[in-house]
Records
---
Amino acid sequence: MKVVTCIAPVNIAVIKYWGKRNEELILPINDSISTTLDTEQMCAKTTIMANPNFKENKFWLNGKEENCDNIRMQSCLKEIRKKANKNLKWFDWKIHICSENNFPTAAGLASSAAGYACLVFTLAKLYEIDGEISDVARRGSGSACRSIYGGWVRWHMGENEFGFDSIAKEIVPKSHWPEIRVIILVVNDSRKKYSSTSGMKTSVKTSSLLQYRAESIVPKRINEMIDAIKSKNFEKFAEITMKDSNQFHATCLDTYPPCVYMNDVSHSICSLVHSYNEIKKSIEVGYTFDAGPNACLYTLEKNVSEVISLINYVYPSSTPKEEYFRGIPFEDLSQNISEDLQGKVMNQRMEMDQLKYIIQTKVGSGPKMLEDESEHLLNEMGNPKVLIKTII
Ligand code: DP6
């Protein structure tokens, strides 16, 4: 038997992908840019075992057996096998796949991007592939292609009708700008959102703003964003990130029927960030929102203490600290914001418990293989070591 275990990161787009020109091949209507987050705080983990005695392919996600027949998973398997070393002894053996996220799925935080990137990366290790695999990850979920690389990543939409050039490439590695911190505010919200896949399909059909955005706004914005990243211009980086998030949500509202992802708490977070930047007389924090109400804030390490004190003041919480603050520990949690700042944001204070929890993380590297056998999620029989994980 042959067994491989890998982990892969989450990525958060700062120039959004929204809309496909080819549904089956998952080819986008515009380029996008993201930051890859550190796997220390959030990651997907996958073990794949090939065994000549397995009767069929099997797949478990977060401890629950799922159907392997879904089209996206099948196309990842098919495409990766085209690139595989066909002389391997285990090339024709059936496989068992076991995958889990180390972060709550309920948070709706790009779990499919990390999950498909991890699946494809692990398959590539199993079949000893060294070349490009972001095109295969793209077939699982568009945004997954960006999780194949670390640091700041651009997904080139490409021109080829078969998608050969629709691949992700690293812009700069994480070491280029280590001061960047990411604070994720998970908003208390149990409403079911429309999936990105169906939302963007309706946007392509009905939103003229989306067409305009893809053709006339994004190409210029991509270049400006790359300049901001390369020159480590935080103000520019955060400004473009916020504008692009706002425009993405505007196209969602321009969709018919509209896709409403942000809620009142999300909007209040935007207002607070703008007030804070105005008080500071410079852009110290930027926000971005994906297809859900949770905020992803970008700031520099030196601002984290004040920003988190501000958030604690405006969004008081009764959740125990150990549960509420996750990821990189926030130092100095007892620190209060200055009386001056308090006075200026007092009217924005919200009722108790508008946020579920907060994760601090940073920019990280791409997927990696775990050598230690104890990391495998499957036992020697090829069954999951842990069944049905309860993840809140
Ligand atoms: C709002 O990659 O989840 O997060 O390709 O249909 O699987 P599919 O969609 P998906 O869409 C992500 C949309 C987004 C923006 C982004 O990550 O660029």
---
Amino acid sequence: MTSAAELTAYKMFVNGEWVDAASHRSFDSLNPYTGRAWATIPDGQDEDVDRAIKAARAALDNPAWKGMAPAARGQLMRRFGDLLRDNAERLAGVDSRDNGKLIREMLGQAKALPGYYYYYAGLADKIMGETIPLDKTSVFNYTLREPVGVVGIITPWNSPLLILSFSLAAVLAAGNTVVIKPSEHASASTLEFAGLVKEAGFPPGVVNVVTGFGKTAGTALVSHPLVRKVVFTGGTEVGKVVGQQAAANVTPVLLELGGKSPNIVFNDAHVPNAVNGCIAGIFAAGGQTCLAGSRLFLHESIHDEFVERLVERVKSIRLGDPSKMESEMGPLSTMDQLRKVERFVEGALKDGATLLYGGRRPEDPALGQGWFFMPTIFDGVVNDSHLAQEEVFGPVLAVLTFREEEEVIALANRTRYGLAAGIWTNDIRRAHRVARDLEAGTVWINTYRALSYASPFGGYKQSGYGREMGLDALREFTQAKSVWVELADTVPDPVTIR
Ligand code: NAD
């Protein structure tokens, strides 16, 4: 057992101050590699969320924020980006300890963060309305693009700061204020991040972080009438609840939810590249990514060769301490998640799928108390089975085969999800045809799991709606006001609508 004195005690960040929960209650954050507590996190409740939202609402009217020139807002965001750059290693280390993901992956993510703030810093003074050529010639009509107000952002545990930055950079560039509720499984990095917000000099209340559980702090944030937009990233079933709760106040939501993404390999593909892309898609983050390419569709003529190469490569994946650069796969983030993966494996075996590799916890004693599961490959999976239709959020790949292009498009689209898809082919016409016909918010051709702040990201179908990143995100976090100016000297007939 770790003694209380050895744990890092975090506080929440509200109105520019570090505070405990009003109840003074906290909970432990566990390290998935050791299975032991390493930090304590304040257990925020309704009262804490209410205080943070009121601070964010007041900050909207504070001349230090409301009156800040957009170019100055951009400067502030650039300064913040520099601080993120200088602290990337520290932030990545905190995340790896807290969510068990590889330091290699978390460092890559942390180093990518400044780009989000620099990109939107450059856009802060380019958010413009329009003049509208009306059918009423005596009227001058123009639009103002205004901030939506207080934005509530709820993030999952798997990539806390990257997913936060998908929306936060645009939220700030547009002049909004924000209350963030990170996952109870990985809150520490967001609190460290808040320290940099303070250091950069954002006015108090512009960015607030309330920690706590989904059913308490999360519900309080989503249901609060002063929140004017909710950004939720998490599981599809929770997303549906969030959408319903927000609807009570007619609060719009942006939902980034789960996926069951197809990775399709045609018979003219470069097989070694496609094998790498497939591994990047499903095993790189232990499958704990919404973008996981968890359904692999192989053209039947290349099936045997592909599967042989894939299993060979997967056998060499090094499971290990996520804080070591040489580790290639870390543990799952929670014991519950490990048990869920095991249930999926049992179900797939019952449904008659063939286990090619893995399917169990590793026996290596060096992996100690970590919540590890072996990279797992099932062949002969039926597209309508539970394994092919539901998100595992673990290192389990379902392999399916196809003969015709039309057939694989229909199979790939036959899912309630539509987050992403991969296509591997050297036929340029086929590549674009299939990209057009797949129902997914992101399609990769001859690559997988690539993202940029400059390109819109979001789901089709039950993977969510709304778009983060790119210019699209600015529309999500601004609202148009239409201003009408009568230029004629006389106001016409009051009875007739104009
Ligand atoms: P989760 O849905 O359990 O939790 C996500 C967040 O929602 C957490 O902060 C949690 O505390 C909060 N929450 C839970 N119940 C709530 C409620 N009733 N009201 C308000 N907030 C609530 O998801 P998770 O296990 O943290 O993350 C994994 C899921 O997230 C996967 O389904 C994955 O696909 C999805 N995800 C999606 C994206 C994307 O961009 N589309 C990115 C990463 C993860």
